[in-house]
Structures are given as C-alpha cells and as structure tokens.
Amino acid sequence: MNDMSSEPQFDVGLRLKELRTNFGLSQRQLADQAQVPHGLISMIETNKSSPSVASLRKILGGLGISLSEFFEPENPVTDQVFFTPAETRDLTSLLAGEGGGIESRLSLRQVGDARRHNLQVLHETYDPGADTGEGMLEHFGSEGGIVVSGEVEITVDGQTRVLKAGDSYLFSSSLPHRFRNRSDRPAVVISACTPPYL
C-alpha cells in the first residue's frame, strides 16, 4: 500500500455528506435507494465507521456515481493511451482510515478513464486477510480476471474456489460475488469489468 502520511487525509464522511446533500436526499432516503441499513449512512458521514469497498460502492450506486468519481470528481478527460504504475488511479487507499481496517489491506488501481471507454481494467492487490466485505457484490455487467501471484478465494453465486497464480475467472456480475485473501501472502489480480462498476 501507499504511504498515506505525506498526503492529506481524504474525508470519506464529509464527501459522502456533500454528495448526499447535493442530490437533495436525507440519510434515510439515500439508505433506502442504496438498500443499506439507515444507520450506516450516519456512521460513515460522522466517520464512526470506515466502509468496506462493497458497502461504499452500494451506497454510491444509490447516487449513481462510481468510486472513481467519488474520490476524483475533477479528474480531467485525456486521450492518454499508455500508463505508468504511478498514473493509475488508486480507488481504495483513500478508504483506509486511521483504524487500519480491512480496507487498508486491499488496493484497487484503475487504468485510465473507465467510464469514457466503458471498460474498467484494474490491478488488484489483496494483502493477507483482505476482503471486499461481508456483503456480496452484485451489479449489471460482466467481469473476469487472472491471478498473477498468490491466491484469492472467490465466491460466485454460492460456488467458492481458491484461485492461484495463472488461474482465471469470468462471470456475470449480476451473480452475488466476493473476493478474499485467506492466505498468509499477498495476491495480485488483473481484472476487467464492463460496464465499469467501481
């Protein structure tokens, strides 16, 4: 993970509250639209809870925006074709609160402007114990990937398998799914999703 000590801390709660207010929604209305418990919005907005990737994505779905738009609302559109590692968009390190929760053990780095190309390509790193969250992810589209190193446990529609380096997956994103690293070493996955989800 990146060392966040030199960067200003991103206030997830404040950003969510600003967006919710801009959309003219109460906490209860947003919770209803996102189909999450009512108290979760309040806990996140007051920074009493650091959301998992799955729960934040579900909440943002209630607003119709992506993680990339949540963290980088002013990101300029470019015709850039090639990207160095430093030029990928870090979609998750800003979720890592001072408590160093599960989110701090998961890194999702996006290549370029996913929305513009209707394709999201990610470099995913799952440290030991990393998990996309207890709630299963479900969204419109298709996704696939290849495990580059380590191993990751993937559950899709009740089927669970541990994939190792060289193994791959491809499924309809509308099926409930979850990613976890239950091993004692990091796992790296290169994945793609269309249309973009995060």
Automatic annotation (TrEMBL):
CDD domains documented for this protein: cupin_XRE_C (cd02209), HTH_XRE (cd00093)
PROSITE patterns, per database record: HTH_CROC1 (PS50943)
InterPro entries associated with the record: Cro/C1-type_HTH, Cupin_2, Lambda_DNA-bd_dom_sf, RmlC-like_jellyroll, RmlC_Cupin_sf, TransReg_Diox_bact_type
Domain HTH cro/C1-type: 16-70
Gene3D superfamilies, per the entry: Jelly Rolls (2.60.120.10), lambda repressor-like DNA-binding domains (1.10.260.40)
PANTHER family: HTH-TYPE TRANSCRIPTIONAL REGULATOR, HTH-TYPE TRANSCRIPTIONAL REGULATOR PUUR
Record-given protein name: Cupin domain-containing protein
